[in-house]
Specification:
Helices cover about 20% and strands about 30% of the residues. The protein has 9 helices and 19 strands.
């Protein structure tokens, strides 16, 4: 398939620059794959749209303040995005104007911290600090890593709104944004209706948001992302599958975790830590996820390819066109979609 098969036109004014005034107030489009039908709701309707016995699987990864700024030898301010800790002092990073960030270049950061480029990994760099940095340092000096289509600096409000209410395990360089729609009240209403919840952890990195640059999508290779699944979650999912109850993934990261860890032959989910570079696009046969709660994704992205695999490319693109015509908000801070 061609990359252009996943293009669509989107007016710039529909790209949400801020979250809704109140969390949980977004619009919700529901896609029925069997009927090839669409209906329009609000996020607050979700508990009534699901069935008792459904199991929602959330990604509880927490976003780090992973965007930091260093000063180079000439006084220039350079942006780095911390992707993965390699050891106590070294990180894999995405660097502004990558080709200029050469081996041996040094940068000064807050608190008299210094770092040096010590290696190159394609488009990425290894940045070694002269002493360890932790999440406490990042909370003081880092910035929320808002995606580039949000054309503004982060604000104190983003520290809350670009984070799910159930975030628990620090490690992501971007939010698992489908979960941003859920409030404590909505979660409580889901529970009271007999809808179960379970939590996996996948730390969002380049595998999720790096653009596809190959004209033929089959040539694209996903970067590896780390995940973990505990015993309680694995047991809940296995029980739901055995009882033929729906497993509903909240977000594309949840789908990728479940599909990577599911052993179809044994009917079991692998416990513990793992890594995935799974690339899901049309033609993929889903093994575990029965429904998907997600956002509206960027053109030509691996996320759009995944939902196209789940619901059909033409159906998804038709739904996106209708969403644009009726004023839905798109991308991380935008509205939501439930595919059943």
């Amino acid at each position: 398939m061609k990359l252009t098969d996943f293009s669509f036109d989107l007016p710039q004014n529909l790209i949400a620059q801020y979250p809704p005034e109140q969390r949980g107030q977004s619009r919700l489009m529901v896609l029925d794959r069997a009927q090839r039908s669409r209906s329009h709701h609000r996020m607050t309707d979700l508990p009534s749209l699901l069935e008792p016995g459904d199991l929602l699987v959330f990604n509880n990864s927490k976003v780090r303040k992973a965007r930091i700024y260093g000063i180079g030898a000439g006084g220039s301010r350079v942006e780095f995005l911390l992707l993965k800790r390699r050891d106590h002092q070294t990180w894999t990073v995405m660097a502004q104007r990558t080709k200029r960030r050469r081996f041996g270049t040094r940068y000064a950061f807050a608190d008299e911290l210094e770092a040096e480029i010590t290696g190159e990994e394609g488009e990425l760099r290894l940045l070694r600090f002269d002493r360890p940095i932790d999440d406490a340092w990042l909370d003081r000096h880092g910035h929320i890593p808002l995606p580039p289509y949000i054309r503004r600096d982060d604000t104190p409000a983003d520290s809350d709104r670009y984070q799910t209410v159930y975030a628990a395990v620090p490690g992501s360089a971007a939010a698992p944004t489908a979960g941003l729609h859920f409030t404590e009240e909505i979660l409580a209403r889901l529970t009271s209706r007999g809808i179960e919840s379970a939590f996996v952890t996948l730390h969002v990195g380049l595998g999720t948001f790096l653009p596809v640059r190959s004209e033929t999508i089959e040539d694209h290779r996903m970067h590896e992302e780390n995940y973990s699944i505990d015993e309680e979650t694995a047991a809940k999912i296995e029980k739901a599958k055995a009882e033929k109850r729906r497993v509903i993934a909240v977000g594309t990261t949840g789908v990728r975790t479940l599909e990577s860890a599911w052993d179809s032959a044994a009917g079991e989910l692998r416990r513990g830590e793992g890594a995935t570079s799974i690339f899901i696009y049309p033609g993929y046969t889903f093994k575990l996820a029965d429904a998907l709660f997600t956002n509206f994704h960027t053109p030509e992205s691996t996320l759009l390819m995944l939902v196209s695999a789940f619901a059909g490319r033409d159906f998804i693109l038709d739904s996106y066109r209708e969403a644009a015509e009726t004023g839905y908000r798109f991308f991380s801070y935008g509205d939501a979609m439930l595919i059943v």
